[in-house]
Design goal:
single chain; seven-stranded mixed beta sheet
């Protein structure tokens, strides 16, 4: 804080010599207001940006201004919020503004207000009861005000709101205001919620609701651990990238609610924690906390708030105690531009980026920009910036991020003309390209400097340089075209923003412009009155989704009144909740319209491993913006998707150990392989590690060395816990220096990411959070073998560039060539071959980097060139040119600013060639397939008069071009029809005799249709249908061919001492667990004899849970066998598949805890046996293969048959291993006339493994046929007893059945299908010959 204060005083002193009156820079407010009662419209919020080098101390106006709140002060810009009362009718707000030097200015807001009268009280009703949403950490309820228009802004307070602020707010969604309450932890369990709604004019309405939370919370949580990074009681510093904020982690062993919060004894608002890892029974909660206040972690239940622990920190405020940058400032006025020069001689190091700011442009420029010379660890810095030729007053500063700064006020006289007015929007029209994409055509004027940039904001930003989207006129009076999408742009509070070259900004709030006239809608007139009442049906295909193992596809169905198939709704994930870690995935899905059903259908994918929660979304259905809660209020549970996972994972990989290579001190003379780096252990479970990135720098060299690596680069371990050795060669060894890890990023298979250093925004997980004191290993002190010192600074010898360019042409290549040499000194280290200099081009608000190429060297002179394609129109107002990073082998550095180049007689500014006619340019195009159809082209300068425009197209390489007309035409995009073609298509445009570039477009080929698999399963016996996953049986039919029905009335008994069950004269039991090596040889065998049984009778099943311990294993592995005997139809999910369990079905779930394997190549085998209790004299054992052979006698189905009754055992080939999908190899170990043993092989695992066989008794409707006899061959018994033989039939299937979700590619599927059909025919032919 010390240095902020000193710099502020410096600004004030310098301002005494310049004009310091307050001016209006911009303002934002609603112009149509509503009120009721006698007072008019009250407490209307207005956001105003003033420019004044002194702090504003007082504001008064011609209307009562009750509250003035300072939002932000960034001198000379001051952002203030005013709360004002207006009478009914039209009003113009005039303000009298006084600054700290008692200078008073009169400010008139440019647009008048209109205050409309509304009836009172407002008719409203509760649309939905209060719900507590742990994802938001707040209570929410929807109110229906029954008004045809948007209601005025209201305020509310609550008896359970946060103590200090009584935090209660009204959020809007169309005509459905939403009451949101952030609860006080100590009050959130009160039985009733009282809400007081006010219009600010002493009109109040009281609402009372039942609190739903106490009934949801019934148990006191048990906290297993509370840890934090940095460690508790640490002192935090703003200058340390490790300690910008606190990450707290709380592990629970018992919890019955998903609301956990950290609350301070100083600040009232709580920080809500979220689940990032763990099983539902033992979740890990994470929260990011400000380091300035001690925090108590609390949990609320129906009795009281439970304090689980306290975290206390002390911290430095403001900037850390580093010396301020010492600098100077000057300016030069050219005939058509101003150049400001900012220089400093005390940049502490190159580790942290430098930010340079003039007016509103503050690029964070990378090394080596601006760095001129270095002495030990102090660097000098020099910066030139181009400004328009007008008079400016403002401030400029250099700031080294998190370290220090230099600030100076400046006045540039320029040409004596002052530009203080923002641009003006005169009209907006829309050109429709396709269902959801439009061109916005804007007419904008600016009185003096001209428009610089324009774009739409909220929720996504589409900002453009004005010269790039100018289609007609000039920057003072022009027409502009911007591509937008209604899929995400036309929401409430979308703002069109624009800034001129002088830095004056303006904006248009959708749907009102500066003249209070409605902006045109981009939609057809029949949708302009479309409301939520026109939505007739709204539901999801799946309302409960298991995300344990992979992303799950779901479909949203929407039916509306009078649908327009051309206006498509869009589903947008709520990024603030479940999917914040998937930053690279926009999660925006567009609907298709089903003409047969009349529904819009949106197919989307939910991310995997999401902790149990409700999926939050918004639906954009132009012109509506539909939030989740209003949709839930109207359509109920149909609009809700509940997510759950066996093991959540929203937590990134972590580094458990770090070791410097060769050590933290590296002497080059004794280094054998001349490399430095780090060996690290990376842990990630359950998702597993995927890839990473490390960047290495030194305190003398800003040129970093980087490594990208993946899980396959590990030198030991596996994807859960792997060892990675990341090294780089020391290419420049002439100077001793300190190498350190500058940046790091680690990503797991779900996209969860940790970073280093952490950013200014909370939610970044530090990759080194778990290292503790081992973080000292992040730097390596390198000792050079060179004993000489090079004191000379490398120099620029020659610099060649074309000073005039045409940045509006199709060919905008810009070339620079130059030469350098190392200056004379006692020791000349010579120019470094590793450090190619960088050429920089700077516009008014643009920054173009040109990376150079080394050509050759001769007699100590090094020659370079650089080429770049200039952005369209970038030279319109001129570009400054400079060169940076000329480096010798001793790491001395030199740079040349534009003024340095001018002083040497070199070209220092690049200017646009005057009086040129711009050609059309095709920049991009839409996809098209071999069937042809609509093709969209995007680019620039397609023209404005269609009678002067032509498209030329050819479909063969040697064929002629033919002229065609566009279907939809604008200056920046068009739609045309294309004939069917598999060959490349060539296209160019012509406007008024000016030809564009020619583009070649390759149509996409349509993939072949998937063949029908009906023959594979013989029509599923007519009792189901065939799918890629096998037979899907209808009704009560069951079995591989849907040829059996389950007998629900079974005499099933169990053994209380072990998980053994009797079904139709067969005993099913777990025999043993064996550890096998990679050859299949037994390394260890555990015969299980003692089990603990717990029986639980539930509404749909009886559950038998057997538990035992493998005491002869080092880790005392727990084995849990859960056996469910079902009494009703139940859908069971296991290993990302859903299985229907019929009454009478017996399902085993076998879980194993951590096991100490002798080798990671070993596996565990669970052995089950099926034994006939009293075999029939006619019985024999047969192995039958109905669907194809599987290597190694792997099996999926086992059938024991007595007459027409069968016992089916299904051995699923999927498993859960370390909370990930795995495979199980099921082998037939032995078989006889009375007994079959099956080994289920699990691969190596770290934490847990689970497999899931089940058994059913069925009535077969088809005789056994097509069997292959492997065991005893018995004659068919035709005796008068009528008893057929008993059979144990082992069925090996290639395609899993009964809904097992195995994805098979087209090619593999076709090959297997042919083999299966051939095999079936051979079996049939064989049986017919007997």
């Amino acid at each position: 804080m010390k240095y902020i204060y000193i710099s502020f005083i410096l600004l004030i002193i310098l301002c005494t010599d310049i004009q310091c009156n307050t001016t209006l820079r911009s303002s934002q407010y609603e112009t149509d207001l509503y009120g009721y009662g006698s007072s008019g419209c009250g407490e209307i919020q207005t956001l105003i940006v003033f420019q004044d080098p002194y702090e504003i101390t007082d504001i008064s106006g011609n209307f009562p201004t009750s509250i003035v709140t300072t939002v932000r002060v960034d001198l000379p810009n001051q952002f203030l919020s005013l709360s004002t009362n207006y009478p009914y009718g039209n009003s113009t707000l005039v303000l009298e503004v006084t600054n700290s030097h008692n200078q008073t200015s009169e400010i008139t807001l440019p647009t008048p207000f209109r205050c409309h009268y509304l009836p009172h009280p407002l008719p409203y009703k509760l649309k939905s009861s209060f719900l507590f949403d742990p994802g938001y950490g707040r209570f929410m309820a929807n109110l229906d005000w029954d008004l045809p228009y948007r209601i005025p802004k209201l305020t509310c307070s609550s008896n359970i709101g946060v103590a200090v602020t009584n935090n209660c707010e009204i959020g809007y969604s169309l005509t459905l205001p939403q009451i949101n309450i952030i609860p006080d932890m100590l009050k959130m369990v009160l039985p009733n919620i009282e809400v007081l709604v006010s219009d600010g004019l002493n009109n109040f309405t009281s609402l009372v609701f039942d609190n739903p939370l106490p009934t949801q919370l019934q148990e006191t949580p048990l906290v297993s651990s509370l840890i934090s990074f940095p460690a508790n009681n640490s002192k935090l510093s703003n200058g340390d990238e490790d300690y910008l904020y606190v990450m707290a982690l709380a592990q629970f062993s018992q919890i019955n609610s998903s609301f956990v919060s950290f609350i301070s004894n100083v600040v009232a608002s709580p920080e809500t924690a979220k689940v990032v890892l763990g099983e539902p029974e033992a979740p890990l909660y994470q929260a990011f906390l400000s380091p300035y206040y001690p925090r108590h972690m609390l949990y609320a239940n129906n009795k009281e708030a439970i304090s689980l622990g306290t975290l206390n920190y002390s911290s430095n405020s403001g900037y850390v105690n580093y010396p301020s940058i010492i600098g100077s400032k000057s300016s030069v006025f050219e005939t058509d531009m101003s150049i400001i020069i900012l220089e400093s001689n005390n940049i502490n190091d190159i580790k942290y980026p430098v930010v340079v700011s003039f007016k509103s442009f503050n690029p964070q420029v990378p090394f080596p920009f601006g760095y001129k010379t270095n002495t030990n660890t102090t660097w000098s810095y020099k910066y030139n910036w181009i400004l328009p030729p007008y008079t400016f007053s403002g401030y400029a500063y250099i700031q080294q991020q998190l370290r220090n700064w230099y600030m100076s006020a400046y006045t540039i006289t320029g040409n004596g003309i002052t530009d203080s007015q923002p641009p003006q929007v005169h009209s907006i029209e829309y050109i429709k390209l396709d269902n959801n994409n439009f061109i916005a055509r804007l007419a904008i004027t600016d009185d003096i400097s001209g428009l610089d940039n324009v774009g739409f904001f909220n929720p996504l930003t589409s900002n453009y340089k004005a010269i790039e989207v100018l289609v007609d006129g000039d920057l003072n009076n022009g027409t502009y075209e911007i591509l937008i999408s209604t899929g995400y742009m036309f929401m409430e509070n979308v703002i069109l923003m624009f800034t001129d070259i002088a830095g004056n900004s303006g904006f248009v709030n959708n749907p009102i412009d500066f003249d209070l006239t409605p902006l045109p809608s981009p939609l057809s007139s029949n949708t302009s009155s479309f409301t939520m009442d026109d939505i007739l049906d709204f539901y999801f295909e799946r309302n409960r989704v298991d995300t344990s193992f992979k992303g799950v596809t779901n479909t949203l169905y929407i039916k509306v009144r009078n649908p327009d198939p051309q206006v498509l709704p869009v589903l947008v994930f709520d990024k603030g909740l479940l999917f914040i870690q998937h930053v690279d995935n926009p999660d925006i899905y567009t609907a298709t319209y089903n003409n047969a059903t009349g529904y819009f259908e949106i197919v989307f994918t939910l991310h995997q491993r999401v902790y149990e929660s409700v999926f939050k979304y918004v639906v954009v259905f132009p012109p509506l913006y539909l939030e989740f809660n209003p949709l839930r209020a109207k359509f109920g549970e149909k609009a809700v998707v509940r997510l759950y996972a066996n093991n959540a994972d929203a937590f990134p990989p972590q580094i458990n150990n770090l070791t410097a290579i060769p050590s933290t001190v590296a002497d080059y003379a004794s280094m054998s392989d001349k490399v430095i780096g780090w060996e690290m252990e990376i842990w990630d479970l359950p998702a597993t590690f995927s890839s990473g990135y490390i960047e290495i720098a030194s305190n003398y060299d800003g040129l970093t060395m980087s490594r990208n690596f993946t899980v396959d680069d590990r030198v030991d371990g596996d994807a859960v816990k792997g060892i990675y050795r990341l090294t780089v060669s020391v290419e420049n060894s002439q100077r001793s220096q300190t190498f350190y890890i500058k940046t790091m990023k680690l990503i797991d298979t779900l996209g969860n990411t940790c970073v280093f250093p952490i950013g200014q925004l909370i939610d970044d997980v530090n990759c080194f959070w778990n290292l503790g004191s081992n973080r000292t290993q992040r730097s390596i002190e390198f000792i050079s073998a060179n004993q000489q010192s090079d004191s000379g600074i490398p120099e620029l010898v020659d610099f060649q560039v074309e000073p005039i360019v045409n940045s509006f042409s199709n060919e905008r290549q810009f070339v620079v060539s130059f030469s350098t040499q190392d200056s004379n000194s006692t020791y000349i280290s010579d120019i470094s071959p590793l450090h190619n200099p960088v050429v920089i081009l700077q516009g008014y608000s643009s920054f173009i980097t040109m990376n150079t190429n080394f050509i050759n060297s001769s007699n100590g002179v090094y020659h370079y060139n650089a080429t770049v394609e200039l952005p369209y129109g970038s030279a319109y107002n001129g570009l400054l040119i400079s060169i940076h990073g000329i480096t010798d082998n001793y790491l001395n550095i030199n740079s040349y600013t534009s003024m340095d180049l001018k002083a040497l007689g070199f070209t220092y500014v690049i200017k646009q060639q005057p009086n040129v006619t711009a050609n059309p340019i095709i920049e991009n195009w839409s996809d098209i397939n071999e069937k042809g159809g609509e093709l969209r082209l995007f680019g620039k300068k397609f023209g404005t008069q269609i009678e002067k425009f032509q498209i030329f197209i050819k479909y063969t390489e040697n064929g002629p071009f033919a002229s065609v007309q566009p279907v939809i035409y604008s200056s920046s995009a068009l739609t045309m029809n294309v004939n069917p073609s598999k060959s490349p298509i060539s296209i160019y445009l012509n406007y008024n005799g000016q030809e564009s570039n020619t583009v070649i477009i390759q149509p996409k080929l349509i993939p072949p249709v998937m063949p029908d698999c009906q023959l594979l399963f013989n029509g599923c016996s007519g009792n189901g249908y065939c799918s890629l996953t096998g037979c899907v049986c209808s009704g009560t039919w069951f079995g591989p061919n849907c040829s059996s029905t389950i007998i629900s009335n079974n005499n099933i008994t169990n053994d209380p001492t072990n998980p053994s069950f009797n079904l139709i004269s067969a005993l099913i039991s777990i025999q043993s667990i064996k550890e096998l090596n990679f050859k299949g040889e037994i390394q260890n065998q555990h015969d299980i004899k003692q089990w603990l049984l717990i029986k639980d009778v539930q509404s749909d099943r009886t559950r038998y849970t057997y538990t035992t311990i493998l005491s002869d294993n080092v880790l005392a592995t727990q084995v849990k066998t859960q056996v469910d005997l079902f009494s009703k139809d139940v859908d069971i999910s296991f290993a990302d598949n859903t299985y229907l369990m019929k009454p009478g079905t017996l399902k085993y779930t076998i879980s194993l805890g951590p096991y100490q394997f002798q080798s990671q190549l070993n596996s565990l085998q669970v052995v089950m046996s099926i034994q006939l209790n009293e075999p029939d004299q006619n019985s024999c054992t047969q192995t039958q293969n109905n669907y194809g052979l599987v290597d190694g006698n792997q099996i999926e189905w086992l059938q024991l048959r007595i007459n027409d009754t069968s016992l089916y055992g299904k051995f699923i080939q999927n498993s859960v291993v370390d909370y990930r999908l795995g495979t199980v190899n099921n082998y037939l170990l032995s078989n006889s006339s009375t007994n079959v043993t099956i080994g289920m092989n699990l691969p190596f695992y770290h934490v847990m493994a689970m497999l899931d066989p089940d058994f059913s008794v069925l009535l077969d409707t088809e005789p056994i046929q097509n069997g292959t006899i492997i065991g005893n061959d018995c004659e068919e018994n035709q005796s008068s007893k009528g008893l057929s033989r008993n059979k144990i039939i082992i069925i090996s299937t290639i395609c899993s059945v009964v809904g097992a979700a195995i994805i098979i590619s087209v090619i593999i599927y076709v090959i297997k299908l042919k083999k299966e059909i051939l095999f079936q025919k051979l079996l049939k032919a064989s049986s017919n010959t007997k």
